[in-house]
What we know:
The chain has three helices and eight strands. It has helices spanning about 15-25, 60, 80-90; strands at about 1-10, 25-30, 40-45, 45-55, 65-75, 95-100, 105-115, 115-125. The protein has an eight-stranded mixed β-sheet with strand order 2-3-4-1-5-8-7-6, with helices on one face. The longest helix has 13 residues, at about 80-90.
Amino acid sequence: MHLDHATIVTADLDAARRFFVDVVGLEDGPRPPFGIRGHWLYAAGRPVVHLVDATVPAQQAGRPAPRIDHIAFRIETAAEWQALLGRLHAAEARYQQAEVPLAGECQLFVALAPGVVVEFVTALHHVSPVRQ
């Protein structure tokens, strides 16, 4: 398992993109067709920073913007994925599962506390039907 990406939610999507591209040196690249505006910024061919448009005013959502929304860990094998599921079930940790549009990937989101989210992502072919 390794750190996959960080997601930053911001009301100034274009300024954040310019900073990470023009100053940090990341490259704007392909992104699945999610229902919200954003950018995936790449380093060494991998999308390491996900920028997401803060569409709901922060005061209404009860969550600050800009913010780092979550961190994600990439699971490389089916055995690692199954072991993770076993640990989640043993800990009675609640999670949400989602499929990444057009990417052939599965995500699990675990809310540790209000505003603290950890994502685990793997290729769909590593995933057997998930029980929650």
